[in-house]
Amino acid sequence: xxxxxxxxxSQIVLCSGLGLVLIGLWGMLTQRHIIRxxxxxxxxxxxxxxxxxxxxxxxxxxxxxxxxxxxxxxxxSRIVDPVPSALVxxxxxxxxxxxxxxxxxxxxxxxxxxxxxxxxxxxxxG
Amino acid sequence: xxxxxxxxxxMVMIAVIFINLAANYHESTSLSPLAYxxxxxxxxxxxxxxxxxxxxxxxRGLDTLGEVTVxxxxxxxxxxxxxxxxRTQDDEDLEKGDRAEETAGRHKPASEIVETATQxxxxxxxxxxxxxxxxxxxxxxxxxxxxxxxxxGTMFLLLALPESHVSRLLIAITESISGFSYVVIGxxxxxxxxxxxxxxxxxxxTFGDLFSAGAIPLIYVFVGLKVGFELSAVLDRFRKExxxxx
Lengths: 126, 246
Hints:
Shape of chain B: globular
Number of strands of chain B: 0
Structural class of chain B: mainly alpha
Distance between the termini of chain B: 50 Å
Strand content of chain A: under 5%
Radius of gyration of chain B: 24 Å
Radius of gyration of chain A: 20 Å
Structural class of chain A: mainly alpha
Number of helices of chain B: 9
Low-confidence stretches of chain B: none
Shape of chain A: elongated
Strand content of chain B: under 5%
CATH topology of chain A: Helix Hairpins
Number of strands of chain A: 0
Distance between the termini of chain A: 56 Å
Largest sheet of chain A: none
Order of helices and strands of chain A: HHHHH
Mean pLDDT of chain B: 80
Helix content of chain A: 55-70%
Low-confidence stretches of chain A: none
CATH class of chain A: Mainly Alpha
Mean pLDDT of chain A: 84
Oligomer: heterodimer
């Protein structure tokens, strides 16, 4: 099992993130049910967050918080990149807002059409 | 059929790109120049122990203002989409259907255990949310996380006691005041310190104290309140019975 030792920890996170992106994209493209499409979007979103966090990882690094364990002088050599974490924080909040708007569109469609299948909402199709 | 083939082709192409990306990935062994600057100068310039907070609130403060704006717009959009429109005959028919469905699968009211547990736990959940956003500059957490915890408290309330009333007026007032104060602090940064949302309008204090890092705790209190009340309003909008605009 020597090849397992070569796998870096952030590579596992990166691969799972890319896998989630693929699953989410597949769900968005093939499913006809609106709620399932929204779930696909959520998976895609989460996958992208995992990819971003894994890119910010520095070998052997720890959380970018300075305390007794990580004194100010050692911070530069011991922490992971704080910028991707900050961007992911922003991205999570925006993803939440987008999901909320999509779900309220789903509620609205259900109220007027009594269905959540996208195939039955065809009159605005060009 | 052609559509399915096309989807399969797209998936395979993206998968090939991703596999290449993953295979050629190497962990970085040192910080990028930007991150090096933040790690080196951040604690001294900003005074925040949590460097992610330093980046989110101060160095990239404008992004956070944009983020709060996006959240506000999406909350407003949800409110607009889920409001009850003027009642036409059509709507009333639909609502009759709604009501029939509702009574068919009518839920029993929550049991006494659930009610008591809610009353006991809800203050603690909200207190924890406040703790998380007050300590945003010292420990993992911050305004958005604390706000989300407060909103989860509201969710808890709405699930356990669906009849409970959430005051929309209170939500609207708190949200507007905190959003406004956040921008005022940002503008004060331009007048009294180095730039928009500069946290040095107040003294930096002792590194690692609760009241340190200049205006960051204050900013996070406003962001936390705003996000918490905004998400509570969104959750409230998704309830079945909708009562008036406020």
